[in-house]
Amino acid sequence: MSAARKHTALPKAQILIEALPWLTRHNGKTVVIKFGGNAMIDDELKAAFAQDVVFLRQAGLKPVVVHGGGPQISAQLDKQGLVSEFKAGLRVTTPEAMDVVRMVLAGQVQRELVGLLNEHGPLAVGMTGEDAHTITATQHRPNIDGELVDIGRVGEITAIDTGAIQALLDDGRIPVVSSIARSADDNHVYNVNADTAAAALAAALNAETLMVLTDVEGLYEDWPNSDDVISRLTAAELEKLLPELSSGMVPKMQGCLHAVRNGVETARVIDGRVQHSILLEIFTDEGIGTMVVPDAQPDAQGES
């Protein structure tokens, strides 16, 4: 057998070697991932997401998953004959609707995700922001046309306690957090925007990276005239763009801004419709999606 014969598996080795600098850079670092959009609904994307998160864990990173569940909540409210109403992009949440939100997030979406992750080993532990006072909130009253409006059990985060999550990470587990919080004022349970919760947790955990899965390729430079994606921008550049963004992107990009202004090294918005987009973003030279970096960071740092 010729020693020079080309092995068909050689490209696999090259791919692994390309990942080496990123494996070295991210080893031991915490990464917070906001799970949402199509990736939550499509079975193949869900399975690929679970594989990616477990891969991160086995590669020496410390992933934390934060999830909402908008489509599942709407479906369950419909089933129970409760109307889904939105004001200022937020779901009006009556006490009855809050019971459904809690049941769907903690009892359905979270359980399914924990199950998918645990197909690969005893790794994932589900919890909500209520557990161990991880997330504390107060009632959020959005300003609509100059007036503060009561939209029910929608929460604004007032405090984060990372103790329980940190203990799970130190034990080699993958925390899966539902974006529900309890109030210290009135002891009510509140529905918290999952993008906002992920960003607040990333900052409090001193995470290296916040990753937000979306149903778009990233932040577009000149939508709808062009589908060119901005691959990298600073916090100041993002702040200037915020007023022009579509309502669905606002909490995601505000979350990215909050994260990088509070100690997180990079925040990335990536396309959750692409299988293994998390691995492509973290472990390849090109990266995909849009990366937000702090203002002080020099351009010489390079991509990813």
Automatic annotation (TrEMBL):
The gene is argB. The keyword ATP-binding applies. InterPro entries: AceGlu_kinase-like_sf (IPR036393), AcgluKinase_fam (IPR004662), ArgB (IPR037528), Asp/Glu/Uridylate_kinase (IPR001048), Glu/AcGlu_kinase (IPR001057), NAGK-C (IPR041727). Belongs to the acetylglutamate kinase family. ArgB subfamily. Residues 29-271 form the Aspartate/glutamate/uridylate kinase domain. It catalyses: N-acetyl-L-glutamate + ATP = N-acetyl-L-glutamyl 5-phosphate + ADP. Substrate binds at residues 69-70, 91, 191. This is Acetylglutamate kinase.
